[in-house]
Amino acid sequence: MDHRTDAGMFSRGFGPPPRGGPNAVLVHGLGLSGRYFVPLARRLAASGAAVLVPDLPGNARSRAAARRPLDVERLADALAHWHRQLSLGPSCLVANSVGCQVTAAFAARHPHLVSRMVLVGPALEPRTPGLRQFGRLLADVPREPLSLLPLAATDYLRTGLLRCAASFRAALRDAAESFEANLTHVHAPTLVIRGAGDTIAPAAWIRHVARTVGDGRTAEIPGAAHAAHYSAPDATAALIEEFTVGDPA
Q1: Cβ–Cβ under 8 Å, residues 240 and 118
Q2: How far apart are the C-alpha atoms of 220 and 192, rounded to whole Å?
Q3: Are 190 and 117 in contact (CB under 8 A)?
Q4: What is the pLDDT of residues 67-120, one digit of tens each?
């Protein structure tokens, strides 16, 4: 089920209609779309969850929803507006990479919309220079499945390389100024997942993120890298389902 809201955001739906009940919202990383979350979305939906996967404004199929790249706070507010339009109720937010910064801002600014939070390879790490962050990204590329590369390249081109560069600068500013502060205002139970081969989100940073939120824990997936949700969707889904066990059905 694919649809576009009045806010101009394109999103994909899996599983039963949410109808205000428990649901999961999957938030992609910088310049990408929700397409690389589809394997995980299908596995979560197979267990009966309602799963929604939007393209954030200015990205991929939601490119026209923003005339210029939005900073992290504006992306979080746009996601909240989309969330309210769909009358979803409190959601389990699952994010990857810079999407974790958007999700942290979302949870800090709109806590009543978040039941739980799952951060997969949260980036960008504060106090790490932009060139070093970019080098970490390049080092991660050969560790990802070959099938991810054309998918990501197509999304980057659809979003636009200039927009991707502007979004990267905005994400670096957020990492330096707001990311950790937003994490301190997150009180929803939070699971921080890292692929064991992730060069972008070091293990020490993952532990720091889990300590910074109000109720955090960590997990590591062997054989996966930064996009663990794509390369190891079964293992990622199992961790999320174990984390959310006991939530109202």
Answers
A1: yes
A2: 9
A3: yes
A4: 899 999 999 999 999 999 998 989 999 999 999 999 999 999 999 999 999 999
Largest CA distance in the chain: 45
Report the C-alpha gap between 79 and 146 in whole angstroms.
Answer: 30
DSSP letter string over 158-171? HH-HHHHHHHHHHH
pLDDT in tens, 184-218: 999 999 999 999 999 999 999 999 999 999 999 99
Query: Domains in the chain, please, with CATH?
Result: 2-242 (3.40.50.1820)
CA angle 238, 243, 247 (to 5 degrees): 115
First to last CA, the chain: 21
The residue behind tokens 């990492």 is 175
Per-residue pLDDT reduced to its tens digit, 119-147? 999 999 998 888 888 888 889 999 999 99
